[in-house]
Each structure stands twice: as C-alpha cells, then as structure tokens.
Amino acid sequence: MRTVVVGSGPIGTFAGLMLARRGHEVVLVDRDTGPAADGTWRRRGVMQFELPHFFRWIVRQAICEEVPELWSALLLAGGLPATPSGMPAQLTGLQCRRSTFERAVWTFATAEPRLRRVTGHVDDLVLRGGRVTGAAVDGAEVDADLVIVATGRAAKIGDALRAAAEGGSCGFSYAARQYRALPGVALPEWGMPSRAVHDGYETIVFPQDAGTITALFVRPTDDPMLAGVRRNDVFQRVAAAIPNLAPWTDPERFVPISSVCSGSNLVNRYRGQRAATGAVTPGVVFLGDAVCTTNPAAGRGVALGMLQARQLVRLIEQHRELAQVAAEFDDWCRAEIRPWFDDHVHWDATELARFRGEDLDLEDRIPSDVVCACAQVDPSIMAAAGPFLGMLAGPRALDQVQDKARAVLLSGWRPPYAEGPGRNEVAALELALAS
Predict the structure, then answer these.
(1) SS3 letters for the chain?
(2) pTM over the 0.90 mark
C-alpha cells in the first residue's frame, strides 16, 4: 500500500516508520526542510518546539517495541532514560528537549528504506469518486491509497470531511526559559518534572538533556497582571522568588541559554474522523493532535499520539477496506483518547475557577487534579490515582474514588497551594521592575 503522511512531526513520522517496516511504501510530506547543515533548526509552524517536554513511558515503550533502533538514536542524541523516584522501571520515560527529540527522529527517518521525504506545502486532499486518492503538494498530485493527516493542532487539511472540532482555549498561557548547569552542578534526579500549583499560577521544572533544564511559568491567559513574565528580566526576578524555580534558575548554578519563549493559544480540542452525518471518507485518516490536543501541563500529547499511531497501524494491518479502518479508528479514539480530552477540559475549567477565588462545586464531578491531591488526606485514593497519574489507567479509573475525594472535601479540606508568592505578590514584582 502507498501511504502519504502529511506532517512529519513525531507522530506522523512514527506512523510512517511503522508502516514502512511492514512493507508499505511511505511518503512523508512536510513544508519544513529539516535541520540545517550547521545544526540549527527553526521548526516551521511548531510553537511547542522550544517549549519544555518530558516523554512518558508510553513513548519509550512504543519506540522500543516498534522501532528499537530509534530509541538507540535518541540516546545517542543525548536523551536520558528517567524513572520517577520510587516507581517501577515500567514507568521509565525520556528526559529530552523537544528540539533534540525531533532532530533525532527526523534524521533517523530520513535514512529509513521504503520511506521517502517530499518537501512542500500540501494545498489540499485529492478527492475522486467519494474517496481520497492523494494529496496536492504545491500544485502537483501525489497519489496514495491512504493519506494520514498529522499536521498538528491547527490542521486545516480535510476540514470539509469532518465535523467541527469540540473544545477551545484551555485558558492558560506559558512562559518558559532554558538553562544550562554550570560545571560541577548536578541536575535534579526526580525522573520526572516537578510541578507546583501556587495561588493563581503554576510552575514546572523539566530536567532535560545535555545538562539543561527548562523552567516554566503557567498563568491564566486572561490575567494581564502576570503577562510580564514573558520578559527575560521579569522571568528571572520572579523565578528567584519561587521555591520551585529558584534553585534551578540561580545564576551561580545555572546560566540561561534562551530568551523566554511564550506559549499562547493553548487548547483542549477533540475532533474525530467522521463528518456531521456520521460518515467517514475512505482513503484518509487524521492522527495525533489533528484528533486530540490537551493542555500540555500534564505531558500527555506525544504519549496519546503514539497510542493513536499504534492502533491505526494495527487496524491497517487487519483490514483491507480503508473506510472500515477510519470508522473503527474513530470508535477507538472516542473510547480511549477522548476521555483524556474531557478530563483536561474539566480540570482546567475548575482550576481557573479556583484561581478566581471560587470554591469547588461538590455536587459536580471532582476534577482529577483535586482527586489526586485528596490522597494526601486519604491514602487509599492513591490505589486509583497512581495508575491514572502514570497513564497506566485512563480517567475512568478515578470513578471508583470520587466519593472518597468528596468526603475529604466535605470535611473542609482543600488542596494547599505550594510555597511561594501568590498571584498578587508576583504581579507586584512585575510592577516594581516596570517602574
């Protein structure tokens, strides 16, 4: 079978590699030309390229089971296996900057037999007789039995073939800065990012590759008083006052190697394969962020994309009829991927409400972040919360402890905010610098 993959980010490329290794002819189409000869790369249209990442165990497992040489290539590029403290080896993920990860994946795929790259802009899908027969690339048709659209969260290709997306802005914006450890300074050995929820904002520290960390400040998008963290001087001043960030941004231990990178227009969005009528179009499947995008704070994006890619390839191997592949893939995504979207929509909405000073509605479903926090009071909750946090089980795993979490909250307990300045104090620091 000849397959055209539109978009050669990690998920589209991984799907292409799996198909190529099963004997399919694969064409990867991307408007980006890839890393320059001098190693620089300004990944076109990929906002998250410079934002922090941690690649969960699902990513490692998928690569090791499907394309094991790629895992070796990632380690040679500097990626570091990381097991969360006290957790089993099964949960080993990868500490790695997105730029390091994508460069290694791009280079590896370029050398893969049965996989060919085409650089160009995909104008649209080619539709004949009610089925997709290829893609129009810079005005020329590239024929295909199947087109996989993996163009990311802003995907427009094939819009007319699908019902409108559900969801929208998650309500948060990011400011991130990369730092490198000075000689003799050790990186944290947590085996995963360190997340702290403060009064009105969040912070996360990501240990990464090549002696680097990324410090992240997460703020409500509609809070203009915290927008100043996008400036280098403000970010540095604010980070020094926040215990979760201060040790890893201390100029006597770490030196900044980037300016602050902003992440805005972050969304929770879900969009299936079917048109509004419920029909699927044979010859095309949408994949990765083109199906589901969630607030990156929980680090689920690439993991959910890898799960999708593996399921899609399984279905392609099982069925000759591509309409059946698309329909069954849509059903699977609705059952296995959509719950993560629904979970983050509720999590984000209720967290923003708490930042505004509103209390939890205890008659409503308790959001997953609060359920997990309630394990501080009732440790039995961790039997369900632990697998959920590790993505060993989906959000439905928390159904069994909803009543336990509600009982904790009815006692008057609320998840405490992390140590450090609250929103108003951070805003005052920003104003002091501005004046």
Answers:
(1) CEEEEECCCHHHHHHHHHHHCCCCEEEEEECCCCCCCCCCCCCCCCHHHHCCCEECHHHHHHHHHHCHHHHHHHHHCCCEEECCCCCCHHHCEEECCHHHHHHHHHHHHHCCCCEEEEECCEEEEEEECCEEEEEEECCEEEECCEEEECCCCCCCCCHHHCCCCEEEECCEEEEEEEEEECCCCCCCCCCCCEEEEECCEEEEEEECCCCEEEEEEEEECCCHHHHHHHCHHHHHHHHHHCCCCHHHHCCCCEEECCCCEEECCCEEEECCCCCCCCCCCCCEEECHHHCEECCHHHCCHHHHHHHHHHHHHHHHHHCCCHHHHHHHHHHHHHHHCHHHHHHHHHHHHHHHHHHCCCCCCCCCCCCHHHHHHHHHCCHHHHHHHHHHHCCCCCHHHHHHHHHHHHHHHHCCCCCCCCCCCCHHHHHHHHHHHHC
(2) yes
